[in-house]
Amino acid sequence: MPKIVLTDVTKRWDSFYAVDHLDLTIEDCSFVTLLGPSGCGKTTTLRMIAGLETPTSGCIEIGDRVVFDSEKGINVPANKRKIGFLFQNYALWPNMTVYQNIAFGLKNLKTMTKAQIDARVAEVSKLVKIEPFMNRYPAELSGGQQQRVAIARTLAPEPQVIFMDEPLSNLDAKLRLEMRSELQRLHLTTGRTFVYVTHDQMEAMTLASKICLIENGLLQQYDAPLTVYNYPNNLFVADFVGNPSINFVDAEGEQAADGAMNLRILGDHEATLSFKEPLKIEDWREALKKKHEDREAVLAERRKQKKHVEKGNKDTVFKYPVAYVDDVPADDRPVTDRDYVLGIRPEFVKIVEEGGIEGEIYGAMPTGMETTIRVRIGNFLLTGVVFGGVTYAIGEKIRLAFEGTNIMLFDKASGDLVGVGSAEIR
Amino acid sequence: MSRGSASPNTSASSFRILLNKMRTFFGKPQNTILVIMAIVCTFTTIAPVVAILKDTVSIHVGSIDQQLEHGRTTGFTFANYIDLFTGKLAKKNLWEPLLNTVIMSVMACVVSILYGGIFAFLVTRTNLRFKKYLSSIFIFPYIMPQWTLAMVWKNLFESVEICGTRDGLLAGLFGITMPNWWCQGMFPSIIVLGLHYAPFAYILIGGIFRNMDANLEEAATILNTPKWKIMTRVTLPLIRPAILSTILLVFGSSMGSYPVPHFLNFTTLSTKYLEMGDRRAGEASVLAVIMMLLGVAVMIINQRSLKSRKSYTTVTGKSGQISKINLGKVGRVLIGAIFIVTTFFTSIFPIVSFAFETFLPNPGDYSFFYTWNPAYLTSKWWLTSENVTESGMYGQMGMLFNPTIWNAYGGTILVSLSCALTAGTLGTLIGYAVSKNRRGKLASYVNSMAFLPYLMPSIAVGIAFFILLSNDTINLFNTYWILIIVGTVKYIPFASRSSLNSMLQISGEIEESAIMQNIPWYKRMLRIIIPIQKSSIISGYLLPFMTCLRELSLFLMLCTQGFILSTTLDYFDEMGLYAFSSGINLILIVTILISNFAVNKITGASLDEGIGS
Questions:
Q1: Which of A147, A165, B471, B510 has a CA that sits 20 to 30 A from residue A182's CA?
Q2: Sign of the CA dihedral with B356 first, then B360, B366, and B367 last
Q3: Domain count, chain A
Q4: What is the pLDDT of residue B281?
Q5: Which chain A residues are within 8 Å of B18, Cβ to Cβ?
């Protein structure tokens, strides 16, 4: 039933834009995670939808109801928005027992009898398995138990939408995994819309039906987790999602007549990237130029507005990390249309006899299930993942190849994704 | 959505927008509270200041300014300023009292910070003996009326030979006479005020010592920093905010204190004010303005230095393990013993001394101690139940049967309870509302407006309200109303301060989670916020109550002698009925101690939790 629509929502403190003209639609019954590094504006976004924070401008609808509109002066208070909110530090009322904590909001509804309240409290506490603690005070519970009480309290009034602000970040690693799967189960059993804030990309990947990745107040990508993983919009998204992190390799070259990209990488290696979907680089550049012009036009339009304040926290192209053995001086060569960046996920770096790149094992970290390796190629370092309990000796000479059709090519100047395909070393 | 599309009926829709915005604004209870309190505080703080300023430039019939203006009775004049600053009596009426006031207040700060600060250090950071006893007895001087120590001083050191009044304990018993500078004037005023406000320093500085993360000092120790360097470079900067708050409190309060310099025969701005009386009413108001300016100046200096304080508000109560300095086996007992002796004189002795004074047949007649003959004691001051003119009773009945005293007692209780209830409630609400919109302009306006009366000397606040509420149009002089209003205004800062501090400790999410469950505001306050911070909110009620019970400076101008206990005490003291003034003191102290104990037992809150915090 309730679909949440954010239109052009901005929140700024002076010239600091916490959220910068955000448009977002959260479908009913979905599990959306707002993901991003700390301070990127994700919690602010959540609190604005919940009504705990007032946007500077924009419009927010929940269901068919406009709950906030800066132009019309509408601002429905948080308590009238009929949503549940799970706080990072749980915010249990320390002066009330577990039962009282859960029942307090229900008693206030006035439509429920004492028996109904008891039944409802029993129901939700069974759902999160806290029945034995009903008469304890929050201080007498462990972190995980407090977390469950907080969930029960949020679920009790049967909100249509449940907001969670980094609910697992105060738990230890093992408990976090456990609660993560319970949240997934809860989403299925309750059938509610979940909006979930996290800075942990793993949580976002595993839980969400859709990830909303935010950086510096700007929406970077809003897609299903695997789309975000395999087709990241830009260098930032590619770097933020995935563990171990993606390898970035500087590349220089151009498109050949057959559509493949001839690139020089890792010093003196020649590689050919064949796009999965046919793509003409001139067309792509044309589209990019158009996109930039449109963006400039929008910004110019905004600057004309009376209340406009220049963004103090400037947007910059993401500085992608390239791993070296010894640090190299910053490359201040002007970036041209021949400059690209290859993005290679660690699982696509393969050790094979006939591999085109010669390297040396620089580090190997076996976990039993897989081994994360670092390979040295000249002064460059690449990270790879080898599945199974394999070990390597440090310094061992090996040969590498890039496998699969999801090797990413980014435009260096804009940081945007050009396309994905398979890479072959010549 | 038709957002942005031009509405045909712009005026109506802009009205609607305004209406919507108003609804949003007032939908938050903290905004409603702030708006109401802004209006109330503006009136209660600005109006008296304006009234007193106006009084300085208006002509008072039958007073010096009328004379100077050649009999003019209407209009405005600067004669009061001109005469006070440049007239023949300028030195005697202004400069000397001003200098005295400043020296006294500054030195009182020094005494209280040294005494209270060292004590705080010893209690929180060393293995001092008798800690528990000492820390509870140490705050007694603040609980007791301000003039208590002044009277103890007189009872101890006065002598007929030097001061020409009567023989105190030392002179009466041992024939020791102290020099005049010791008995009265600046020196004893400084010591008495310093000792009276030392508990402030103890509680404020001790609070930081207690909550300070010991790791900060330990980190320095590990880096092999010498102990004195740790003290001066780490510890002292950390307690600086507490020292500054203490200075603010002690300076403001000492400056406005009337009873201490009055009893100790010392001329300050506040005693000068009363001395001037009707003859120089306008000039007296100028003195009140000067006192207010001094108070505001101290606040501004304080706020300047508070700005840099933000950098160490992260001092939290996290580290539980504080390594205590070892004073040595002998040292910890010896230092403890020294403090037992000093606190005996500041805390226990006054009570014993007052009790004893009420059984002496004549003031200063300590014959009982030479002879141990019970005939030299009397119970007449307490028990006389008929109107007798002889035996020095001036026609008063014994204290137990004296209707004046018990009426005044009832009045004091009524005023104190009412002040505590209104000041406590308003202060709690202000603290709540300010903590919710901390950065807002309105919030900081309300916060400083509510705090300002604290910095204005009691006597000046009293005067201001006297001028404001006791004139031809409104005359509330000698009614409980005026006392309650003034007391409330003066004591709101106690409550708002302790409430603000405690509200800031509650994470905003605690209340937000209740908002999300659509729990109405009054329920959030009564069921969640107040129960969580129960003890400091109760302190917010307790402090005004205790302070009001023993308030003299503030109420001196606003009612007649028999109206409340403290003015009655002053009256009997002037009259020479020292047994009565001692007896009333005793009654006040016992009342305060019993109520403090009762509240502590019932609610678990205690005075030291909220003092000046």
A1: B510
A2: negative
A3: 2
A4: 76
A5: 73
So where are chain B's domains? 28-57+399-613, 89-357
State the ipTM, two decimals.
Answer: 0.76
**Cβ burial B483-513 (10 Å sphere, 16+ → b, else e):** bbbbbbbbbbbbbbbbbbbbbeebeebbbbb
In B165-201, which positions are buried (b, 16+ CB within 10 angstroms) versus exposed (e)? Answer: bbbbbbbbeeeebbeeeebbbbbbbbbbbbbbbbbbb
CB B179 within 8 A of CB B162: yes
- Given A75, A84, A88, which is nearest B516 (Cβ)? A84
The reply to whether residue A79 touches residue B532, judged by beta carbons under 8 angstroms, is: no
A295: phi then psi, degrees, rounded to nearest 5:
-60, -45
Domain B28-57+399-613 fold: MetI-like fold (1.10.3720)
Burial of A177 (0-12, 13-18, 19+ CB in 10 A): middle
| Residues A236, A287 within the same domain | no
Choosing among 1.10.3720.10, 3.10.250.10, 3.40.30.10, 3.40.50.970, the CATH entry for B89-357 is: 1.10.3720.10
- Give me the mean pLDDT over the A332-353 stretch: 88
CB contact under 8 A, A108 and B518: yes
Q: How far is B513 from chain A (nearest CA, A)?
A: 7
Separation between Cα atoms, residue B365 and residue B377, nearest integer Å: 9
Same domain, yes or no: A173 and A280: no
User: Among the listed ranges B134-148, B380-394, B435-449, B485-499, which one has the minimum average pLDDT value?
Assistant: B380-394
Domain boundary among A240, A257, A279: A240
Q: Domain with A154 in it: what CATH number?
A: 3.40.50.300
A95 and A18 in a common domain: yes
DSSP-based three-state secondary structure for A218: strand
The residue in chain B having the minimum alpha-carbon distance to the alpha carbon of residue A69 is B3
d(CA B75, CA B58): 7
For B405-442, what is each residue's pLDDT tens digit? Answer: 888 899 999 999 999 999 999 999 998 898 888 777 88
A84 touches chain B (CB under 8 A): yes
- Among B25, B513, B523, B524, most A C-beta atoms within 10 A, so best to mutate, is B513
Report residue B550's pLDDT band, with 50, 70 and 90 as the boundaries.
Answer: confident
The whole-number average pLDDT for the span A67-94 is 86
pTM given for the model:
0.77
Residues A89, A235 share a domain? yes
Sign, CA dihedral B47-B49-B51-B54, equals negative
Task: Spell out which residues of chain B touch residue A66, defining contact as CB-CB under 8 Å.
Answer: 1
Q: What is the nearest CA distance from A241 to chain B, expressed in angstroms?
A: 30
Looking at the structure, tell me whether residues A55 and A30 fall in a common domain.
yes
Q: How many CB pairs under 8 A join A and B?
A: 93
B516 φ/ψ angles, rounded to the nearest 5 degrees: -60, -25
Which among A211, A240, A269 is the end of a domain? A240
Whether pLDDT at A193 is above 60: yes
CB contacts, 8 Å: B17 with chain A? 71-73
Domain containing residue A394: 247-425
Q: Is A120 on the interface with B (CB under 8 A)?
A: no
List the 24-83 stretch of A: residues with Cβ below 8 A of B.
50, 52, 54, 59, 61, 66, 69, 71-75, 77-80, 83
A7 contacts chain B (CB < 8 A): yes
Which of A178-182, A286-290, B215-219, B599-603 is the least confident region?
Answer: B215-219
- Statement to judge: residues A228 and A281 lie in one domain: no
pLDDT grade, residue B328 (50/70/90)? confident
- List B residues 10-69 in contact with A (Cβ-Cβ < 8 A): 13, 16-21, 24, 27-28
Q: Do A75 and B517 touch (CB under 8 A)?
A: no
pLDDT recorded at residue B445: 85
